[in-house]
Predict the 3D structure of the following.
Amino acid sequence: MNATRPRVAGVIGRIPRPADPERAAAPAAVRLLTGPGRPPVVVLHRTADGGWSRGPRPLTELERKALTWDAACARARSVARAVARHLAGHAGPSDVRVDGDRVRVVLRVDGAECWARWRAYFQITVVGEGSRPHTLVGDGERDGVRVTVVAHGAATGRRGRRPFRVGDATYDLAAPLRDAYGDVWYYQGCRRPDGMPLLSLDGRPERCSLANVAAYLGPLSAVRDTDRAEDRTSPSEPAG
């Protein structure tokens, strides 16, 4: 026997009985307990005038938000499928993923002209530096769905100098820095609270302060654009 039956019956029994016989009989018609072989559940709901109704009840605010979210996620999945078909003809490695009501795209970009086409395709208006070398991250929109694009190779051009002084030496944070052992360090925009730049080795997530790298692995030298293609320690681009 269902252990909840006596409790439910007691709750129903304590419902005040209105003068209207139809209302008085309504709670008894609510079949809250069901199981294999039983008829479909009938759920009544209160109306504005205090009565009972078998018709569809108005949606709650939470239910409306849930349906809106489901529709947004469905649109994101549809856009992701369309983008994936478009990327099928893309020469470089790429990846498309759905993150709730948004789409995340990772692709390889070869040159400023190629990046300009992708910016137009995704209507990218905000661009920032990525966490990996030579990577830009753009926020845009496709068919009403927000899209984040991670473009590897889009930031290969030489940037303006970003000098930072440590002791008696001044380093250009816009260029990778090679230590005394041949490893290459990158500044990816992160600093300590005191303003000291944090560097990562070969694009790895672990970071070390510029002061410590210079003190323990120096001297440091800037890696020029002509050296990067032949640099054995430069990070490889991800496949997706």
Residues 71 and 101 are 9 Å apart (CA to CA). The helical segments are 5-13, 21-29, 61-87, 112-121, 210-217, 225-228. DSSP finds six helices and 14 strands in the chain. Residues 21-34, 228-240 have pLDDT under 50 and may be disordered.
